[in-house]
Task: structure prediction
Amino acid sequence: NAGVTQTPKFRVLKTGQSMTLLCAQDMNHEYMYWYRQDPGMGLRLIHYSVGEGTTAKGEVPDGYNVSRLKKQNFLLGLESAAPSQTSVYFCASSYSPDRPEAFFGQGTRLTVV
Amino acid sequence: QQQVKQSPQSLIVQKGGISIINCAYENTAFDYFPWYQQFPGKGPALLIAIRPDVSEKKEGRFTISFNKSAKQFSLHIMDSQPGDSATYFCAALSRGGTSYGKLTFGQGTILTVHP
Result:
């Protein structure tokens, strides 16, 4: 049982490049989340999804796009990376608001130079 | 516009002492309040959680106190141990309106427990 798996674990991008972060969960969870973690800022919600085919904006959505084409996968895209997007990105999933425990992946450390 | 405000940012406690971390929120649609623990290089993991229909929940050395009228909740770690040294996050889940399912975190508290 893998839980929540993030790919890749590390990445260095040049300013203006694009990339996609993949989050996969094998727990049949409905809810999925993307966060970024920066020192002193905590975990800030980028986008989230309450079910397959649905997405919603979080606190810091600018510069990011997401897709939830399959229930088990939640993709986070950076179309034109900027140094301000250097961060550690975490994906999380939960079953439902009635079983709201969120399980996190191990994180993706992204550096934009 | 941080919807969940956490303090202090860092905390140093001696072994055996009590660690207290506080959080405050504004959104009345929040109705589930978990605390997460994160060790370096790892993702956060659920520690303990509370719903607003109770004022306190205790699990071992960890206790959540909840004050609905003040929109505040806190984590107490009794008999703090060096192994408790980690970053702690409070969070709140919205189950109302346009933010249904939104899980919002506080800024985090770095706890250091000295032996």
